[in-house]
Design a protein that fits this description.
alpha+beta, 27 strands, nine-stranded mixed β-sheet
């Protein structure tokens, strides 16, 4: 019998793992009894343990212990030169620059991030090799660096609108580090725009209408806009054959509306924005005139998300007031009205629509409850059933309708619960006034008492049952328990008595 010679892998020892933490779900070889597979006589696969670990467990940056002290300094106080400093701020612009070098140890690309903290701006060149940094506009980040550089005249860094720059490569250089403050960000730090003073208008700030009509030529023009709706992220191939991605965000203020287009890696930023709530301060955007004015980001554009300024608070309230009037199916305010306590109270008043109007004008901040005796003058159950609109709500600023209790939003691709469409009930009237179609907010209990079935039973009902309900309830007088609050701005129906 021929002698057995060891394989070439047996001459190389097993390298220790480079991960800083041991995987919790993967037991060691000694615990599973697989130690014999690593014996000198067993053949290997040619890969070291560190290479296998990097592929099976692609973790983020390891824990970093600073080799020396890095004092935290405001961005406006930075000076060029070698110094170990820590800066904290929010990303106001960033874009990806792919590195075309094919060297094994070369970086795959660089994320040029413009970071501001209210005192100034600095460009952080974040180099990466294996780690995919999920950056978004408005994120709070912290960077540690041993050197600050100046931007050369005419360079890309100078066009970014910052005079200083720092370069960090945390994967290869132990003297620098970069961290996204996801868990500790409370939405308060580094929110004040540069040069803003309370009680004064920010320099260069103008309305969207003035910006479109010629203000875009101002050197430091700024617009303050609210997010109206968010379009879907579109991926396509350019004429040069390169993959591209974009996302259109519809924005507005009290004078005009426009479209803000985010390209490439910036498109993911819109996923964290909320329609009619998120306010953007956009400085020096590019303007193109189409059917609707289109704003886009250049290297010198800065986007500050929810800035801490009085004009932003006013615009947010303005946008939310529009939402209250235009929402197709506002949600019922749970916890605002104590229905059980009202039922047990000794005084329960019967109002007319004229009484409610007079009482609400006399005491606008007062929250009150009572009863109304109304007649249903019109029903549209079958009409909306045929239109596939028995249930509806809004998500990402876009109305959603279906003959189901839930559906998927095409913008954020999440399952959204639906409520019964209030427009299936036509105008309601009494001896003193009239309530237009769809102007009431109904609680789930009120719908169940009116229709005699839950929402899930209502959506499964046959057409014969729906026709019967429509004919049965037409011109019926019902007594409704209502609640009024200026914060909601509509009558809320808490219960029904037939």
């Amino acid at each position: 019998m021929a002698p057995q010679f060891p394989s070439i892998q047996s001459f190389f020892g097993r390298e220790p793992s480079v991960r800083t933490e041991k995987p919790k779900v993967r037991p060691s070889a000694t615990e599973t009894g697989e130690a014999s597979s690593c014996s000198p006589g067993a053949p290997g696969d040619g890969f070291t343990a560190s290479e296998i670990d990097d592929v099976l467990h692609p973790a983020g940056l390891p824990k970093w212990n600073p080799p020396k002290e890095y004092p935290e300094i405001d961005i406006g106080a930075l000076v060029p030169g070698p110094m170990c400093v820590t800066i904290m701020g929010r990303i106001v612009n960033f874009y990806d620059q792919v590195n075309l070098m094919k060297m094994p140890r070369a970086a795959k690309g660089c994320l040029r991030c413009v970071v501001g903290d209210g005192t100034g701006f600095v460009v952080v060149k974040l180099w990466y090799a294996k780690i995919d940094y999920k950056l978004r506009l408005g994120q709070l980040v912290t960077a540690w660096t041993p050197h600050i550089s100046t931007a050369e005249a005419g360079s890309a860094t100078n066009r970014d609108g910052a005079a200083l720059t720092m370069s960090v490569f945390p994967e290869r250089d132990n003297s620098c580090y970069f961290m996204v403050q996801e868990q500790s960000d409370e939405g308060v730090l580094c929110k004040t725009p540069l040069g803003y003073r309370e009680g004064r208008t920010l320099d260069g700030l103008m309305t969207l209408k003035n910006f479109v009509e010629g203000g875009s030529e101002v050197a430091d023009g700024k617009v303050l806009v609210a997010v109206k709706s968010i379009g879907g992220r579109k991926k396509f191939i350019t004429k040069k054959g390169n993959p591209a991605e974009k996302c259109d965000i519809y924005v507005f203020d009290d004078t005009a509306d426009a479209t803000l287009t985010l390209w490439g890696c910036q498109a993911a930023s819109a996923s964290a924005w909320k329609p009619s709530s998120t306010v953007l301060l956009v400085s020096k955007p590019a303007l193109k005139e189409y059917t609707r004015p289109n704003l886009s980001l250049t290297a010198g554009t800065r986007v500050e998300v929810d800035p801490a300024m009085a004009d932003a608070e006013w615009l947010r309230k303005y946008a939310q007031n529009l939402t209250k009037r235009e929402h197709v199916n506002p949600p019922y305010p749970k916890g605002m009205f104590d229905v059980e306590q009202f039922k047990e109270s000794q005084v329960r008043m019967l109002f007319t629509l004229a009484d409610i109007d007079e009482f609400a004008r006399a005491a606008p901040t007062e929250i009150f409850m009572g009863y109304l005796s109304l007649i249903i003058t019109e029903l549209n159950i079958m009409t909306f059933y045929q239109r596939n609109m028995l249930f509806g709500t809004e998500c990402c600023g876009v109305p959603l309708f279906a003959n189901a209790t839930s559906t998927k939003c095409k913008q954020c691709e999440t399952d959204v619960p639906l409520s019964i469409n209030p427009r299936i009930i036509g105008p309601l009237t009494d001896e003193t006034g009239n309530i237009a179609t769809g102007k009431l907010i109904w609680s789930p209990e009120a719908w169940e008492q009116l229709l005699g079935r839950t929402a899930s039973e209502f959506v499964r009902a046959s057409t014969d049952v729906l026709k019967y309900l429509e004919h049965r309830m037409l011109f019926m007088r019902v007594t409704v328990m209502f609640g009024w609050s200026e914060e909601v701005g509509r009558l809320c129906i808490c219960g029904i008595s037939m």
